[in-house]
């Protein structure tokens, strides 16, 4: 034969599975010519996945009842993922198991408002509660573990009680040592074994501080928020306050970034959160806005990439640490003013406690599946994520992905706020144009700061 | 060949010819009902004889023809070479080696040809066998060495020569003798090497061609760089031939020149990216997979953005490399025809020859259906190539799984049928009938009557948009969304009745060919054509666009033209056609099938450059071809004609590698339903159809341009308006005043006062005051002005100082300390 001829001949075996139990054989051809309308189809896929995200966004998991008064304190256990301690205004403390969604233990700890609880971080066996009755009580978890019985309740006694000479507004435990600090008229430093504070720290003025938080990285540093609208930094080692900044409004809560040692975020009364660099308090690294009423609490995710805020406007918001606007808003009809919101230890859940005597459990990613996903689905999710990232800037996709439903009242409030902000900006612009000398030019990131003290 | 015939259809009028079906068991032929290849009609017999004759003739005649022409060519080449060689002798040219190599290659090919001839004679004369063997050995050696010498350029050239050189042995010898003399002269210096080559020479001497000897010697000398030939080699190595240099570098003996060369080479290599080392094919693939050059990040000032862009570019590049790798592991290779006798055109190969040469399992792909009653047939393949929809113009429709020779449905609509089109999969298809268009399912049940589409001549389905496009005698092009039933677009072509429409598979734009010789392009969202091309002087019979969307082929009476859609320019037209070309089709690999009355010709690689003769041909013998369609993902061409359907095997026409998620001929019913759901989810909007399908996600630079233009126009208009007003006003109020100004106005020039550049209130105030009088106010103002100047100067000085300090500070702060990372520089 003087010619050699070959044509395409496909063996059925190569293309069709031999039995019904096999996986279907898949052939891929990367040649772009065999995939027409690549861009358009990818765009469509991105659009679909964004829509699906919105459809499957069901973040609310459960509400746990038990408290008879509003819950104002909540702390997650440093070792056990499912353990949470909460305290309400009537002086009751409850220990929760998130897995079973139940109260594991409870105790009537104080007769008055409990202002703060903290779990001893080195071992996690104890927790402390401080109250308006000027006492700090140390509790052992194992003592409380029993069924909720009124007779037995009386037997539940604290390991030790510390009596303070001053009012107590907040408490936090050191991350490695057996010391804890309380805020009040002065900052008091306590030891487990001593009945009286071994150190008292002040800036020399008569302010009372409320929130107090140790840095998880630089363990001797802690920050307080004072009633004189200040945020102050202290160092246990040098036993003096480091520096302090006074803002225009009062700060309600402080949270340190566990991954970026210098950065912390404060929840402010003026509806914003401010992220600060510890070394320089005269301007914020980032302003996070979105809430429509005072922000009551802020807590960083253990990953250090996001934080959750609880607000007086009945909502929880999740922020990326670098972004101005929030990534997500959670609300339900029955949830009232939220006073505490905390990330779970694995950063998958958010626990919130509110006025309405309930503790609520949320997913931190609204549309992510909770159950374990198989490899195929995982890949599909990955693919969808990358598509969303790629086409996220296109207007339609952006609109859908950013859209969040807000309750009617909040929606109008939001618009009002927007209007008022716009008006203010316009006024500022006009003043700048017409009477430049009257306008003091300050950057947005410095505008809310009154002064910095050292 | 065992040809077992099987009737596909039970009914009488439709008969079939099949070579062998793979899966179905063979059934004994019903001679009464079927007319098979074994019992051909007289016409067929005649044709066969003709074919045979022609085939036998063609074996001889073209050779004769070629002899003369090729000899001429060769002579010319040789003359050229002679001249060059002379030059070489005088000056040690840099091109020496190249010429030599050319010569050597020429001779090699000559030798090859000789070999072939001898091989042909093998059967008759066994005497030459030994000689042939020796020759083969020598040739192998030659080949290896030549490969070493010239990897890049020479093989291509040799191919060209291969096609040209076929001569009678006597004339060859003459030419060779000429060459011989020259080469011998050259080889005088090299003759010292003979000792080493003795053995080889002894073998070669047995051969009558002494040229081979010389060539071999030369090659050996060049490659081995023997000590005695050092000087010669050094001179030769001045050539830019890289491979030679590489060989040199490997050798330990280096002259000074060689050293320099090496350095040069190294420098070049340093400058170049590793891509340089890639083969041309790989570079092409890389370009294809990166989908064009990436965005340049140099001019992006935003560091964050730049970083992001860079990282995306990196991922794209990585992806391209990965897909190159994965495409190396693709399962199937494309089909081909290799003719060992280089002078023989593939054109002469008949379907019979092809069928003989392919595997038995694939022979079923060549078959014929004799369907005489329901007259000229049209055919359409499903997008995965597995199903065939046949429609007779007189109303007969059948849906066939042609790969398994299984008929899914067959029915008669008892009406004229003008066109058919598959919808999203083989379960649904649309049929343009006498008045309305109907949709049927794979059981033959009528699902819809589309009374919007009346009097339709052509149908087409846009798979990714779910749009059924139609055009008819009313000259209205219409798109209907098949999933929702909405009419996505409707436009009047205003060019009379239209019976020619195809889609551009690259961008889903519909192309219509009109009676006036115009081709128009349509998108459902635009009421006017996106583009129109004046293509032929007479009616456009058919059009086809290739898969890349770059080339358009149009057919009119006896002219077939190839166009570049990107430039809207005609590239060339097919050289000659033997009849009226009614239909066209372009395969996935870019082959073009053109009908010429009762014949069909298939052209390979014709889109990019003109060809003088086709790749393959086939003819019906009588009648005319109504439609040709390439089967996707198969090497098959479906030719439907007056009396039925013929499936031709065209090696290399289909895309060998399927993508299961794109088009899978082996898909199961479950997979089919799943893909349909996905298809529906990913349905593209009709608004997305535009000439550039990649516009999504791009920055719309056009919009800003348009906006700017509009603004400019507005400004112009406003100025004109104001000028007009002025004119009117001046006329109305005082005609006598300001003649000059009105003149200016009439001339259209815009009068504007020169604005003072720096409007300064203080200065203005001073200026407004009387010049001669110096009062207190003026003094004050002047003082203030002076003070301000002073302040400005001071500020400038301060700034300068600051800058100086800054620079110094940076120098100081620039020192690296271990603790610096903890303190941000503010």
UniProtKB/TrEMBL annotation, chain A:
<comment type="similarity">
    <text>Belongs to the WD repeat DCAF13/WDSOF1 family.</text>
</comment>
<keyword id="KW-0853">WD repeat</keyword>
<dbReference type="Pfam" id="PF00400">
    <property type="entry name" value="WD40"/>
</dbReference>
<feature type="repeat" description="WD">
    <location>
        <begin position="64"/>
        <end position="106"/>
    </location>
</feature>
<keyword id="KW-0677">Repeat</keyword>
<keyword id="KW-0687">Ribonucleoprotein</keyword>
<dbReference type="InterPro" id="IPR001680">
    <property type="entry name" value="WD40_rpt"/>
</dbReference>
<keyword id="KW-0539">Nucleus</keyword>
<dbReference type="InterPro" id="IPR036322">
    <property type="entry name" value="WD40_repeat_dom_sf"/>
</dbReference>
<protein>
    <recommendedName>
        <fullName>DDB1- and CUL4-associated factor 13</fullName>
    </recommendedName>
</protein>
<dbReference type="InterPro" id="IPR007287">
    <property type="entry name" value="Sof1"/>
</dbReference>
<feature type="repeat" description="WD">
    <location>
        <begin position="107"/>
        <end position="149"/>
    </location>
</feature>
<dbReference type="InterPro" id="IPR015943">
    <property type="entry name" value="WD40/YVTN_repeat-like_dom_sf"/>
</dbReference>
<dbReference type="InterPro" id="IPR051733">
    <property type="entry name" value="WD_repeat_DCAF13/WDSOF1"/>
</dbReference>
<feature type="domain" description="Sof1-like protein">
    <location>
        <begin position="365"/>
        <end position="447"/>
    </location>
</feature>
<dbReference type="InterPro" id="IPR019775">
    <property type="entry name" value="WD40_repeat_CS"/>
</dbReference>
<feature type="repeat" description="WD">
    <location>
        <begin position="288"/>
        <end position="329"/>
    </location>
</feature>
<feature type="repeat" description="WD">
    <location>
        <begin position="331"/>
        <end position="372"/>
    </location>
</feature>
<dbReference type="Pfam" id="PF04158">
    <property type="entry name" value="Sof1"/>
</dbReference>
<dbReference type="InterPro" id="IPR020472">
    <property type="entry name" value="WD40_PAC1"/>
</dbReference>
TrEMBL record, chain B:
<feature type="compositionally biased region" description="Basic and acidic residues">
    <location>
        <begin position="774"/>
        <end position="785"/>
    </location>
</feature>
<feature type="compositionally biased region" description="Basic residues">
    <location>
        <begin position="752"/>
        <end position="770"/>
    </location>
</feature>
<feature type="compositionally biased region" description="Low complexity">
    <location>
        <begin position="131"/>
        <end position="153"/>
    </location>
</feature>
<feature type="region of interest" description="Disordered">
    <location>
        <begin position="731"/>
        <end position="826"/>
    </location>
</feature>
<dbReference type="InterPro" id="IPR036322">
    <property type="entry name" value="WD40_repeat_dom_sf"/>
</dbReference>
<feature type="domain" description="BING4 C-terminal">
    <location>
        <begin position="614"/>
        <end position="693"/>
    </location>
</feature>
<dbReference type="InterPro" id="IPR001680">
    <property type="entry name" value="WD40_rpt"/>
</dbReference>
<dbReference type="InterPro" id="IPR015943">
    <property type="entry name" value="WD40/YVTN_repeat-like_dom_sf"/>
</dbReference>
<dbReference type="InterPro" id="IPR012952">
    <property type="entry name" value="BING4_C_dom"/>
</dbReference>
<keyword id="KW-0539">Nucleus</keyword>
<dbReference type="InterPro" id="IPR040315">
    <property type="entry name" value="WDR46/Utp7"/>
</dbReference>
<feature type="compositionally biased region" description="Low complexity">
    <location>
        <begin position="190"/>
        <end position="248"/>
    </location>
</feature>
<keyword id="KW-0677">Repeat</keyword>
<feature type="region of interest" description="Disordered">
    <location>
        <begin position="1"/>
        <end position="302"/>
    </location>
</feature>
<protein>
    <submittedName>
        <fullName>Wd repeat-containing protein</fullName>
    </submittedName>
</protein>
<feature type="compositionally biased region" description="Low complexity">
    <location>
        <begin position="94"/>
        <end position="123"/>
    </location>
</feature>
<dbReference type="Pfam" id="PF08149">
    <property type="entry name" value="BING4CT"/>
</dbReference>
<feature type="compositionally biased region" description="Basic residues">
    <location>
        <begin position="786"/>
        <end position="806"/>
    </location>
</feature>
<feature type="compositionally biased region" description="Basic residues">
    <location>
        <begin position="17"/>
        <end position="28"/>
    </location>
</feature>
<dbReference type="Pfam" id="PF00400">
    <property type="entry name" value="WD40"/>
</dbReference>
<feature type="compositionally biased region" description="Low complexity">
    <location>
        <begin position="41"/>
        <end position="56"/>
    </location>
</feature>
<feature type="compositionally biased region" description="Low complexity">
    <location>
        <begin position="63"/>
        <end position="85"/>
    </location>
</feature>
């Amino acid at each position: 034969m003087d010619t050699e001829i070959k044509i395409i001949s496909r063996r059925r075996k190569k293309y069709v599975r031999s039995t019904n139990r096999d996986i279907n054989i898949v052939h891929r051809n990367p040649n772009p010519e065999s995939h027409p309308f690549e861009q358009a189809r990818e765009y469509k896929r991105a659009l679909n996945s964004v829509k699906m995200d919105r459809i499957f966004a069901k973040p609310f998991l459960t509400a746990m009842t038990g408290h008879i008064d509003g819950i104002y304190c909540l702390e997650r256990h440093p070792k056990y993922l499912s353990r949470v301690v909460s305290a309400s205004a009537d002086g009751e403390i409850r220990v929760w198991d998130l897995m079973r969604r139940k109260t594991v233990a409870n105790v009537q700890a104080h007769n008055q408002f409990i202002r703060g609880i903290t779990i001893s971080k080195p071992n996690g066996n104890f927790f402390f509660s401080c109250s308006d009755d000027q006492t700090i009580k140390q509790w052992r978890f194992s003592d409380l573990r029993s069924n909720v019985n009124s007779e037995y309740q009386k037997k539940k006694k604290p390991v030790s009680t510390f009596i303070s000479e001053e009012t107590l507004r907040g408490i936090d435990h050191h991350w490695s040592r057996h010391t804890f600090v309380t805020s009040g008229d002065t900052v008091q430093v306590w030891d487990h074994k001593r009945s009286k504070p071994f150190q008292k720290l002040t800036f020399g003025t008569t302010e009372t501080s409320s929130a107090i938080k140790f840095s998880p990285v630089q363990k001797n540093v802690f920050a307080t928020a004072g009633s004189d609208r200040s945020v102050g930094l202290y160092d246990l080692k040098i036993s003096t306050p480091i520096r302090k900044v006074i803002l225009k409004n009062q700060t309600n809560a402080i949270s340190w970034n566990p991954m970026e040692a210098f950065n912390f975020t404060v929840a402010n009364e003026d509806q914003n959160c401010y992220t600060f660099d510890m070394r320089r308090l005269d301007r914020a690294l980032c302003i996070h806005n979105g809430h429509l009423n005072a922000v009551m609490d802020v807590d960083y995710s253990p990953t250090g990439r996001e934080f959750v805020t609880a607000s007086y406007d009945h909502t929880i918001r999740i922020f990326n640490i670098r972004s101005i606007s929030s990534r997500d808003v959670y609300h339900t009809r029955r949830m009232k003013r939220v006073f505490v919101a905390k990330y779970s230890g694995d950063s998958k859940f958010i626990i919130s406690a509110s006025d309405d005597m309930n503790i609520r459990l949320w997913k931190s990613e609204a549309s992510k599946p909770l159950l374990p996903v198989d490899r195929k689905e995982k890949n599909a999710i990955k693919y969808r994520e990358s598509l969303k990232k790629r086409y996220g800037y296109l207007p339609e996709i952006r609109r859908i992905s950013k859209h969040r439903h807000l309750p009617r009242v909040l929606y109008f409030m939001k618009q009002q706020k927007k209007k008022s902000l716009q008006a203010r900006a316009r006024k500022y612009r006009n003043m700048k144009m017409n009477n430049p000398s009257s306008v003091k030019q300050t950057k947005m990131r410095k505008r809310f700061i009154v002064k910095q003290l050292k | 060949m065992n040809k077992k015939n099987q009737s596909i259809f039970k009914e009488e009028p439709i008969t079939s010819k099949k070579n062998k079906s793979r899966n179905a068991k063979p059934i004994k032929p019903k001679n009464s009902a079927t007319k098979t290849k074994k019992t051909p009609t007289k016409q067929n017999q005649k044709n066969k004889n003709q074919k045979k004759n022609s085939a036998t003739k063609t074996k001889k005649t073209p050779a004769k023809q070629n002899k003369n022409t090729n000899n001429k060519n060769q002579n010319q080449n040789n003359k050229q070479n002679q001249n060059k060689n002379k030059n070489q002798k005088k000056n040690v040219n840099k091109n020496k080696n190249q010429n030599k190599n050319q010569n050597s290659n020429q001779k090699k090919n000559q030798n090859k040809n000789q070999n072939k001839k001898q091989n042909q004679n093998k059967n008759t004369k066994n005497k030459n066998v030994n000689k042939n063997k020796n020759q083969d050995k020598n040739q192998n050696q030659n080949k290896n060495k030549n490969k070493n010498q010239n990897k890049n350029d020479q093989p291509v050239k040799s191919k060209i020569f291969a096609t040209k050189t076929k001569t009678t042995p006597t004339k060859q010898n003459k030419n060779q003798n000429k060459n011989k003399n020259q080469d011998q002269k050259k080889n005088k210096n090299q003759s010292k090497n003979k000792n080493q080559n003795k053995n080889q020479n002894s073998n070669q001497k047995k051969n009558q061609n002494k040229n081979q000897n010389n060539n071999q010697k030369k090659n050996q000398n060049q490659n081995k760089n023997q000590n005695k030939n050092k000087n010669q080699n050094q001179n030769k190595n001045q050539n830019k031939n890289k491979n030679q240099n590489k060989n040199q570098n490997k050798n330990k003996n280096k002259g000074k020149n060689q050293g320099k060369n090496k350095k040069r080479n190294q420098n070049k290599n340093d400058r170049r990216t590793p891509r340089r080392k890639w083969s041309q094919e790989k570079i092409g693939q890389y370009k294809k997979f990166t989908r064009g050059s990436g965005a340049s990040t140099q001019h992006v000032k935003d560091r964050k953005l730049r970083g992001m862009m860079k990282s995306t570019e990196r991922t794209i590049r990585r992806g391209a490399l990965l897909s190159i790798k994965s495409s190396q592991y693709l399962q199937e290779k494309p089909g081909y025809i290799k003719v060992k006798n280089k002078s023989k055109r593939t054109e002469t190969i008949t379907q019979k020859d092809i069928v003989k040469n392919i595997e038995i399992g694939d022979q079923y792909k060549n078959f014929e259906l004799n369907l005489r009653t329901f007259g000229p047939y049209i055919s359409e393949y499903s997008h995965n190539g597995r199903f065939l929809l046949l429609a007779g113009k007189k109303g007969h429709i059948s849906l066939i799984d042609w790969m398994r020779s299984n008929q899914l449905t067959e029915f008669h609509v008892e009406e004229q049928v003008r066109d058919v089109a598959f919808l999203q999969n083989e379960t649904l298809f649309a049929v343009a009938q006498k008045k309305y268009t109907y949709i049927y399912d794979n059981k033959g049940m009528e699902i819809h009557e589309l009374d919007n589409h009346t009097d339709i001549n052509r149908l087409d389905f846009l798979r990714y948009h779910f749009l059924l496009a139609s055009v008819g005698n009313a000259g209205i092009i219409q798109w209907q969304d098949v999933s929702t039933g909405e009419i996505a677009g409707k436009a009047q072509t205003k060019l009379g009745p239209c019976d020619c429409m195809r889609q551009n598979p690259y961008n889903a734009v519909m192309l219509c060919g009109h009676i006036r010789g115009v081709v128009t392009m349509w998108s459902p969202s635009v009421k006017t054509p996106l583009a129109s091309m004046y293509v032929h002087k007479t009616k456009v019979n058919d059009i086809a666009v290739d898969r890349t969307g770059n080339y358009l082929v149009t057919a009119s009476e006896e002219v077939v033209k190839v166009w570049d859609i990107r430039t809207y320019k005609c590239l060339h037209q097919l050289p000659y056609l033997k009849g009226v070309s009614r239909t066209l089709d372009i395969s996935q690999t870019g082959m073009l099938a053109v009908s010429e009355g009762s014949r069909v010709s298939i052209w390979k690689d014709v889109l990019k450059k003109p060809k003088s003769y086709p790749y393959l041909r086939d003819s019906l013998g009588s009648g005319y071809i109504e439609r040709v369609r390439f089967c996707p993902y198969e090497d098959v061409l479906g030719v439907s004609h007056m009396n039925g359907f013929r499936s031709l095997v065209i090696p290399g026409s289909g895309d060998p590698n399927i993508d299961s998620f794109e088009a899978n001929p082996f898909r199961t019913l479950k997979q089919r339903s799943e893909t349909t759901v996905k298809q529906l989810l990913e349905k593209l909007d009709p608004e997305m159809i535009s000439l550039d399908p990649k516009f999504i996600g791009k920055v719309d630079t056009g919009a800003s341009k348009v906006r700017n233009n509009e603004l400019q126009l507005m400004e112009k208009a406003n100025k004109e308006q104001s000028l007009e007003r002025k004119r009117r006003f001046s006329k109305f109020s005082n005609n006598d005043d300001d003649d000059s100004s009105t003149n200016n106005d009439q001339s259209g020039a815009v009068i504007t006062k020169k604005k003072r550049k720096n409007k300064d209130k203080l200065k203005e105030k001073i200026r407004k005051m009387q010049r001669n009088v110096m009062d207190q106010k003026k003094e004050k103002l002047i003082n203030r002005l002076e003070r301000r100047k002073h302040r400005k100067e001071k500020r400038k000085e301060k700034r300068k100082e600051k800058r100086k300090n800054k620079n110094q500070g940076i120098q100081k702060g620039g020192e690296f300390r271990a603790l610096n990372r903890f303190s941000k520089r503010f």
